[in-house]
Amino acid sequence: MNSHSSLIVEIKKGSFIALARVLTLVENSLDGSDDLLKGLKINQRIPVIGITGPPGAGKSTLVNSMIDQWSEAGKKIAVIAVDPTSPFNLGSLLGDRIRMSAHFNKPNVYIRSVATRGSVGGLSAKIIEMVDVLRSADFDYIIVETVGVGQSEIEIAGLADITVVVLVPEAGDEIQHIKSGLMEIGNVFVVNKADRDGAVSFANKLTKMLHQRKNVVPVFKTIADKGIGTQDLLHWIRNAGEEESDLRLFLYVEKAFKLIQNYRMRDIVKSELQQKVAEAYDKPDFNLYKFINAYKEN
Ligand SMILES: Nc1nc2c(ncn2[C@@H]2O[C@H](COP(=O)(O)OP(=O)(O)OP(=O)(O)O)[C@@H](O)[C@H]2O)c(=O)[nH]1
Ligand SMILES: [Mg+2]
Known about the structure:
Elements: H1 3-13, H2 16-27, H3 33-39, E1 48-52, H4 59-72, E2 77-82, H5 97-101, E3 109-114, H6 123-135, E4 141-145, H7 152-157, E5 162-167, H8 180-185, E6 188-191, H9 199-210, E7 219-221, H10 230-239, H11 245-264, H12 270-280, H13 288-293
Parallel strand pairs: 1-4, 1-5, 2-3, 2-4, 5-6, 6-7
Helix pairs in contact: 1-2, 2-6
Bound molecules: guanosine-5'-triphosphate (GTP) and magnesium ion.
């Protein structure tokens, strides 16, 4: 058995050390990661839950509360935090891999942060691959937390079986302006910081707005830092049921698209591109369309 297939076996058996090694291989596209991905025995039945919403809405706090309740019930949970700006209080801290592994004292929880700042493209392809690695271990739930700004919230919908959008009562005044992307992708909404004024009326407003959607979209109120309201959300998630086949098709297409896009762009490094443009653009006959022709064939 070569070392990669033994890593895959170790992951299946529950080794977090093997898991961390494989995630690092995949995250950095190191030698052998392609073959490793092809060798994965991916359990598509493990639900992937995307948590997104504006900065500071309490996503990580909510994730902590979910982990507390699930791990109490004996569930195994993996979390991928994309660009975390605040720590998880269970012990893992942003991007600090060594401290993350100190998290072993909670054997049912694996948390990994992924830094995407400065990387050129490929974000969602990496996350897709890393989630599939986690799906080849025996977790009960996989959570992916991303900040809902820019494109990331749209991308999370192409990755997660269930997308949870976390908002706060203060968003009430601007509800008309909440990015329509966020409003469209949530399968379930959470009004967190429900200890603050306006939570009830905001939740009602939100529910009304969501009536326009084809399916019923529930709205839960939580006080995540006190663990209040999380149970109802988890109950809903547990009963969210089998994926609809058209949703599964949608997810496979989205993922295939991202992976192919990433593969086709793998040789393009923006800094090198900049250098090449810099060398060419001052010439009197510079034409961008002729310039990019060189990139059309490979
Ligand atoms: N009052 C109140 N504060 C909360 C609640 N939930 C979280 N917080 C606080 O809100 C702040 C932000 O919480 P985080 O969980 O870090 O928010 P986040 O959405 O993960 O933030 P980013 O990852 O930076 O986008 C922290 O100080 C939390 O303690 C809540 O229900 N009520
Ligand atoms: Mg966070």
